[in-house]
């Protein structure tokens, strides 16, 4: 498979297309044929040499979120089948033709969104869901204050809180304030 590989730390030009073997995947994982990959701040910092890949992730292939089609599933995966359109959160390796993801870190491709649009969702959606709903326990009817409401995380938090029936309030600033 082809992958965009960090040849040395630096600017975008250090990304080089190289042939790599398809990633292996575990019993709880899916192998995704990548149609689009998100670009996160962590990917940029990794490319610059300031953010090491997590253990088990390819050290030189960035990419924390992708959208594509499930190609294969591990023996313990129940929700996904070959051919399913998903977006997924990865530990890395998304800038490639194939990427492995834990089946529990995949979401169905939202209706009406392209693969490119859906590839920008997993990092913010999983972050907000875990922190606001699983850890914070936000429930319908509650009021919810989001600091940094104009950021990607902030916008997702406002939208998801609204969908869950909470009333969201936000702060935002500028470089001057």
What does this structure look like?
There is one protein chain. The chain has 177 residues and is an alpha+beta fold. The protein has two domains: 2-113, Quinone Oxidoreductase, Chain A, domain 1; 124-171. It has helices at 41-47, 115-118, 122-135, 152-163; strands spanning 2-6, 15-19, 29-37, 65-73, 85-89, 98-102, 106-108, 143-147, 167-171. It has a five-stranded antiparallel beta sheet with strand order 6-3-4-5-7. A two-stranded antiparallel sheet has the order 1-2. It has a two-stranded parallel ribbon with strand order 8-9. Helix 4 (152-163) links the parallel strand 8 and strand 9 (167-171).
SSE blueprint:
Elements: E1 2-6, E2 15-19, E3 29-37, H1 41-47, E4 65-73, E5 85-89, E6 98-102, E7 106-108, H2 115-118, H3 122-135, E8 143-147, H4 152-163, E9 167-171
Parallel strand pairs: 8-9
Antiparallel strand pairs: 1-2, 3-4, 3-6, 4-5, 5-7
Helix pairs in contact: 3-4
């Amino acid at each position: 498979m082809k992958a965009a590989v960090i040849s040395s730390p630096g600017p975008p030009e250090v990304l080089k297309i190289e042939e790599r073997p398809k990633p292996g995947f575990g019993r709880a994982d899916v192998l995704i044929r990548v149609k689009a990959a998100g670009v996160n701040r962590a990917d940029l910092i990794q490319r610059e040499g300031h953010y090491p890949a997590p253990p088990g992730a390819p050290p030189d292939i960035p990419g924390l979120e992708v959208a594509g089609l499930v190609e294969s599933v591990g023996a313990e995966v129940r929700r996904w089948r070959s051919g399913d359109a998903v977006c997924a959160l990865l530990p890395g390796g998304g800038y490639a033709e194939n990427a492995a993801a834990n089946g529990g870190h995949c979401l169905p491709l939202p209706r009406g969104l392209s693969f490119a649009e859906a590839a920008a969702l997993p990092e913010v959606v999983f972050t907000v869901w875990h922190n606001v709903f699983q850890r914070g326990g936000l429930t319908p009817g509650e009021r919810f204050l989001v600091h940094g409401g104009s950021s990607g995380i902030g916008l997702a938090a406002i939208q998801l809180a609204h969908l869950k029936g909470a009333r969201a309030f936000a702060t935002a600033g500028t470089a001057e304030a």
